[in-house]
Each structure stands twice: as C-alpha cells, then as structure tokens.
UniProtKB/TrEMBL annotation:
The record marks D143 as: Raises pKa of active site His. PROSITE patterns: GART (PS00373). This is Phosphoribosylglycinamide formyltransferase. Pathway: Purine metabolism; IMP biosynthesis via de novo pathway; N(2)-formyl-N(1)-(5-phospho-D-ribosyl)glycinamide from N(1)-(5-phospho-D-ribosyl)glycinamide (10-formyl THF route): step 1/1. (6R)-10-formyltetrahydrofolate binds at R63, M88, R89, I90, L91, N105. Residues 1-180 form the Formyl transferase N-terminal domain. Its EC number is 2.1.2.2. N(1)-(5-phospho-beta-D-ribosyl)glycinamide binds at G11, S12, N13. It comes from Paracoccus zhejiangensis. GO terms for molecular function: phosphoribosylglycinamide formyltransferase activity. The gene is purN. PANTHER family: PHOSPHORIBOSYLGLYCINAMIDE FORMYLTRANSFERASE. InterPro entries: Formyl_transf_N, Formyl_transf_N_sf, GART, GART_AS.
Length: 193
C-alpha cells in the first residue's frame, strides 16, 4: 500500500510512521506533505529519501483553493492511504469524501471526548483520571470518524498540559504505527494500548 503523510510541524508521528514502514510492512511512504513550508518535519522526511511537498495555505484565498493545490501532488503520488499526523488544517467535506475510508488522523484525546484543540488542558480541567490519544478514520465531521485505536495514560497529580502532552505523545508514537500496520493489511479491529 502507498501511504502519503500530511504534517504541519515537527512531524514526530510522521517519523515514527516512516520508521515503522522501513522493514517488512504492507505499506510504504510515497509522499510527505505540509501546509507550512517551514515545517521542520519536511527536512526529516527528505533526509529519509521520501518525496516531500509544501503547499502554504496562507497563499490561498480560500480553503477550497488550498485543497485544490494540495490535491495535485497528493493525487500524483497515487496514495492508497493518507495519514494526517500533526496536520493542523480542517479539511472540507469535499476533500474528506474523496479519501473516505482511507484517510487516518491521530488526535490527542480519548475521543469522543475533547474533539478540537487544547485537549490536555480540558482533560485536566475536567478532573479526568485518564487521557490519551485516538487514531480514527477521517470523515466530514471533525475528529469524529470510526475509531481505529486508542492509547490511555493516567492523569497524574499536579499534571500540566505540557507534562500530559509529553506522555501522550509517547503513546501516539506507539499507537499510530500499530494502527497503520493493521489498516494497511486490511484489519480494521481497533487497537487498544
Ligand atoms: C502533537 O500535539 C500531537 O499530539 C498531535 O499533533 C501534535 C504534533 O504532532 N497529533 P507531531 O509531532 O507533528 O507528529
């Protein structure tokens, strides 16, 4: 399976996905794209020999025009699967529909709790005993598609959003590669770490 990965920043999840596909694996990376030309993950992907593309969303007057520009190199790579990994742009229903059933995203909360932003602060504020990350299929509704995997961490006394984010990110790096491996092999059974 051909995998395209979209990032917006450092791309730590993208790197773990690349590492996981290096050996015997049902998928291989064909493109790493970003909406930000300054995303430091782009150079890391290029250093591993993966083709990259940056489409600066600020250069477009509308979401639709940005997506049309992104679609060109994305479709040219002929991906079977798209992984959003720290990709911080909301995609239109037209875009998500085009990749229905084969676009994944990792979100730093135990969905359906805390879709959207500031997930760790919200979990701490709510006094939750647990937090974590979710990999889900991307649909038109933000952070709401079928869940493919979750990883849980305890919320510790004196937790701050930063300390929680750091521990959740470690679990993201375990979860996303495992979900992608199974998804690429046609296994949709949720991974629960
Ligand atoms: C992190 O907050 C992670 O929880 C979320 O996106 C952000 C950046 O991730 N998935 P990455 O290091 O760019 O993969």
């Amino acid at each position: 399976k051909r995998v395209a990965i979209l990032i917006s920043g450092g791309g730590s999840n993208m790197l773990r996905l690349l590492d996981s596909m290096a050996g015997d694996h049902p998928a291989r990376p064909v493109l790493v794209g970003s909406n930000d030309p300054a995303a430091s993950g782009l150079a890391k992907a290029a250093a591993q020999g993966v083709p990259t593309v940056a489409i600066d969303h600020r250069a477009f007057a509308s979401r639709t025009e940005f997506e049309a520009a992104l679609l060109e190199p994305l479709l040219a790579a002929e991906p079977d699967i798209i992984c959003l990994a720290g990709f911080m742009r909301i995609l239109t229903p037209d875009f998500t529909r085009r990749f229905a059933g084969r676009m994944l995203n990792i979100h730093p909360s135990l969905l359906p709790k805390y879709p959207g932003l500031h997930t760790h602060a919200r979990a701490i504020e709510a006094g939750d005993a647990e937090a974590g990350a979710t990999v889900h299929e991307v649909t038109a509704d933000l952070d709401a598609g079928p869940i493919l995997g979750q990883a849980r961490v305890p919320v510790l006394p004196g937790e701050t959003p930063d300390t929680l984010a750091a521990r959740v990110l470690v679990q993201e790096h375990r979860l996303y590669p495992e979900v992608l491996r199974r998804f690429a092999a046609g296994d949709r059974k949720p991974v629960l770490l």
